[in-house]
Write a structure and sequence with these properties.
Layout: E1 2-8, H1 12-26, E2 32-35, H2 40-46, H3 52-60, E3 63-68, H4 84-93, E4 98-104, H5 117-120, E5 124-130, E6 140-144, E7 150-154, H6 160-175, E8 180-185, H7 191-204, E9 211-216, H8 217-226, E10 233-236, H9 238-251, E11 259-263, E12 269-273, H10 290-302, H11 307-322, H12 336-346
Parallel strand pairs: 1-2, 1-3, 3-12, 5-10, 8-9, 8-10
Antiparallel strand pairs: 4-5, 4-11, 6-7, 11-12
Helix pairs in contact: 1-10, 1-12, 6-7, 8-9, 10-11, 11-12
The protein binds 3-isopropylmalic acid and magnesium ion (MG).
Residues 242, 246 line the site of magnesium ion.
Length: 348
């Protein structure tokens, strides 16, 4: 099995290095690795955030472990050359349409949550975010109004097939958990969302055991901090899922803790922490590698058929935290590699 390592920008290389050390420490047979540049690092070295060689590696690989992209040096580039286009391009080119973003609280981190501990303890959910459509991929540009004013635009759309396939992922995810699915949209204002809601309701006929509810995204944002325990699985579009998953991460203690999987229809996936490149702390050993280490566990489970090894990583992360391992974001002073060490020594 070939794993593509794409560290990217900012803290990406630091957190990927720790995930790789944890994978090595598992001593699994049959895994090989190839690394490639992506994001701003690739632009600086090769003139493009997603060079052909990187895309080729991603296509050849059985799974991709991705760090983060984003580099302030590149903010003034034309949009198609910006680092973020690399991850968007990979998601689109490889048809990684289904993004699973689990959020639950490690009990010892209840005090780190932005919520009161008794509320934070309730959080145990998966956000299923659509990744190939929505306002992210619609026609966009800058134009001039009749009055000579600058105007930016981004077209939001979803077709029924796109909604249907992510709805199935939402229902299946719910079937494997608490059988509750909340579809989040803005159907009171957006036609895109009206179609979304209609198609989710049609798809529900195939999953009679799942209790389906609908929520407007503004209400969902509010409910997520008021009573996160009410959610089992949320299914939502690309933009709303982006926003709600960052919010969920702080409910669970830190954005440095949440892993994610971006899956195609055949089991291939790209695995990445939900956090960004954090250029403000890059290179200082302050990044929390746990989200990336947990992403590696998801990779073992979903793409490499190694559920036991995935469970070992997850148990080791839980044990390291229970034993007091704390990076800066968790109010501690352990460096990125010390956090990696803590996980490795907790592996059984
Ligand atoms: C994420 C990130 C990306 C997104 C950025 C880096 C393009 O915020 O994965 O959540 O918006 O999807
Ligand atoms: Mg995001």
């Amino acid at each position: 099995m070939l794993i593509a390592l794409l560290p990217g920008d900012g803290i990406g290389p630091e957190v990927i290095a720790e995930a790789k050390r944890v994978l090595d420490a598992l001593g699994l047979d049959g895994l090989s690795y190839e690394e490639a540049l992506v994001g701003g690092a690739a632009y600086k070295a090769a003139g493009h955030p997603l060079p052909a060689a990187t895309l080729d590696l991603a296509k050849r690989a059985d799974a991709i472990l991705f760090g983060a992209v984003g580099d302030p040096d590149c903010d003034a580039l034309e949009r198609h050359l910006r680092p973020e286009q690399a991850i968007l391009g990979l998601r689109k080119e490889l048809e990684l349409f289904a993004n699973l973003r689990p959020a639950s609280l490690f009990p010892e981190l209840a005090d780190e949550s932005a919520l009161r501990p008794e509320i934070a303890k309730q959080i145990d959910m998966v956000i299923v975010r659509e990744l190939n459509g929505d306002v992210y991929f619609g026609e966009k540009g800058m134009r001039e109004t009749d009055g000579g004013k600058r105007e930016g635009y981004d077209i939001m759309s979803y077709n029924e097939d796109e909604v249907c396939r992510i709805a199935h992922v939402g229902f299946k995810t719910a079937m494997a958990r608490g059988k509750k699915l909340c579809s989040v949209d803005k159907a009171n204002v957006l036609e895109t969302s009206q179609l979304w809601r209609d198609v989710v309701i049609e798809t529900a006929a195939e999953y009679p055991e799942v209790e389906l509810t609908h929520m407007y995204v503004d209400n969902a944002a509010m409910q997520l901090v008021r009573n996160p325990g009410q959610f089992d699985v949320i299914v939502t579009g690309n933009l709303f899922g982006d926003i709600l998953s960052d919010q969920a991460s702080m409910c669970a203690g830190s954005i440095g803790l949440l892993p994610s999987a971006a899956l195609d229809n055949g089991g291939k996936g790209l695995y990445e922490p939900i956090h960004g490149s954090a250029p403000d702390i890059a290179g200082q050993g302050k990044a929390n590698p746990l989200a990336t280490i947990l992403s590696a566990a998801m990779m073992l489970r979903y793409s490499l058929d190694q559920a036991d090894a995935a469970g070992r990583i997850e148990a080791a992360v839980a044990k390291a935290l229970a034993d007091g391992a704390r990076s800066f974001d968790l109010g501690g002073s352990m460096t990125t590699s010390e956090m990696g060490d803590a996980v490795i020594s907790a592996l059984t």
